[in-house]
Design goal:
It is a single chain. By secondary structure, this protein is mainly β. The chain contains 6 helices and 21 strands. 7% of the residues lie in helices and 32% in strands.
């Protein structure tokens, strides 16, 4: 593709915030301290987790950059940035979460394979760009189309990004055509993040945002879009990011028995405390995030200050001053919900949080019950230990 630099230019790493916890240097994977996540509803770009499968591409000739749309359609087309910017611009507030968020905690049960994420492989941003439904209309696919005349039922996104899992080929993923052509699904070709031009870490100059779905499907550094019959056959759709039962290991795994993971399940995390915190006796306020996939709201967050014996309901909010009501028009359905709860703590204890979404899905109590060999979708109750000291604190 014109305007894309060769591997020798990949050594130019983008500037990054010094507080990021680096989980892997090559490819670069990093997350912010958990306390940074609850300091604001919209996550600053600096504190948004960085997830990569290969070297970070440099696309520097923006005028020659284009996205080629082809496949089972009548009018294949090169779209340049000016064409995409000419479409109506939408701002969608959406939380992205890596399927491997909280993998480190799952690996304490049994070893898993993957980047060791703590609890911050998640962030909430305002993405600006064109709706994919509008883009596909430019190549003759009407809104709310489930199949093209020539049998296209899935939309595959192919990245500039090259990765070893694809034998040096591009990273790719797909979503169903009916989701891509549904304006209500808010799938974007995004060129802005939090009101600024996307930076290199987050997919400059153009990335896909698929709200409510695991981050692996929101392809960065978009190169081309293919309309295809079956879902994408790439590594990260077929041999990764699938949910297996605890009985499956690397000797008996059969990837074809599971569908690629799309929506993420209900999740919540306490962010105001690290795992073992020394605190003074008295009132303790905790804050955290809760989110669910598929546009489902957060119905409630239950918090226990005594290891799960008794529970109180946390208060929930998105923007200050606007009450959060699950599934309400005033609430942003693709975005996380922040929560807080306060209790009197006089002795060392375990504080636990669990969220319930608008479909009454609840987080599983124990990580052992959802252990899987890839360590994805750890949505077990989140627990932090607190040590109460009565002197020298």
């Amino acid at each position: 593709m014109p305007g894309v630099r060769g591997p020798s230019d990949y050594s130019r790493e983008p500037p990054r915030h010094p507080s990021l916890q680096i989980n892997a240097k090559e490819p670069f994977n990093a997350e912010p301290p958990r306390s940074a996540l609850v300091s604001s509803y919209v996550t600053p770009v600096d504190f948004f987790y960085k997830r990569n499968h290969g070297p970070i591409p440099v696309v520097d000739d923006i005028h020659s950059y284009s996205v080629y749309i082809s496949g089972l359609i009548e009018n294949p087309k090169h779209l340049f940035m000016k064409d995409i910017r000419a479409l109506p611009k939408y701002n969608v507030t959406a939380t992205l979460q890596c399927a491997g968020n909280r993998r480190t905690a799952m690996s304490k049960t049994r070893t898993v394979k993957g980047v060791g994420w703590d609890v911050s492989a998640i962030g909430n941003a305002v993405w600006g760009g064109a709706k994919l439904a509008d883009v596909l209309e430019l190549v003759g696919i009407p809104k709310l189309t489930g199949a093209t005349k020539s049998g296209g039922k899935h939309v595959e996104f192919v990245s500039v990004d090259k990765c070893k899992e694809e034998n040096g080929g591009p990273y790719k993923a797909s979503i169903p055509l009916i989701q891509a052509t549904n304006p209500e699904a808010d799938v974007l070709l995004a060129y802005e993040m939090n009101g600024e031009t996307l930076n290199r870490d987050h997919g400059y100059p153009l990335r896909v945002i698929v709200p409510g779905v695991i981050g692996a499907r929101s392809v960065k550094w978009l190169d081309s879009i293919n309309v295809i019959t079956e879902e994408c056959q790439g590594f990260f759709m077929q041999k990764d990011y699938k949910m297996f039962p605890p009985s499956v290991n690397w000797d008996n795994i059969n990837w074809s028995t599971r569908r690629p993971q799309m929506d993420f399940p209900v999740q919540c995390v306490i962010c105001s405390l690290e795992d073992v915190n020394a605190i003074k006796p008295g009132k303790v306020k905790i804050t955290g995030y809760a989110a669910s996939g598929g546009g489902r709201g957060i119905e409630r967050v239950d918090v226990s200050f005594d290891g799960g014996k008794t529970w109180i309901e946390a208060s929930r909010y998105q923007r200050t001053g606007i009450p959060y009501i699950s599934e309400h028009t005033s609430s942003e359905k693709w975005a996380w919900v922040l929560f807080e709860a306060t209790a009197d703590v006089q002795q060392s204890t375990e504080i636990v949080a669990k969220a319930v979404d608008s479909a009454a899905n609840v987080q599983p109590e124990k990580v052992e019950d959802i252990w899987n060999l890839r360590g994805i979708l750890n949505t077990s109750w989140h627990r932090v230990q607190v040590r109460v000291g009565h002197s020298n604190l």
